[in-house]
Amino acid sequence: MTAHQAIGLAEGFIESESEGQVIEAWQYLLDVGLVWQLQGWFGRTAVAMIKDGILEVKDAEDNTETIFV
């Protein structure tokens, strides 16, 4: 998945095949740290999804693609 695809799926301008694909897109954005660099809605939505147990915060050591700001 690319950043553009993940953003498109999260925002809805790319049609998803399933809810799981949208969650995968959000997880990708979280894993690479991009969710914190986009408009505030992305970060707020990600925090809510983490609290609801939909997204998983992974250790940076487990993901070499993580972007640190």
Question: What this model shows, in words?
Answer:
- The structure is a single chain.
- This protein is an all-alpha fold.
- It has one domain (3-62).
- Helix content is 49%, strand content 0%.
- The model has no long low-confidence stretch (mean pLDDT 89).
TL;DR?
The chain has three helices and no strands. The protein has 69 residues and is mostly helical.
Radius of gyration: 11 Å
Q: Average the pLDDT over all residues and give the rounded result.
A: 89
Low-confidence stretches: none
* Overall domain count: 1
Please work out how many helical segments DSSP would assign: 3
Name the helix and strand elements from N-terminus to C-terminus, one letter apiece: HHH
| Helical content band | 40-55%
Keywords:
single chain; 69 residues; mainly alpha; 3 helices; 49% helix
SSE arrangement:
Blueprint lengths: L2 H9 L7 H13 L8 H12 L18
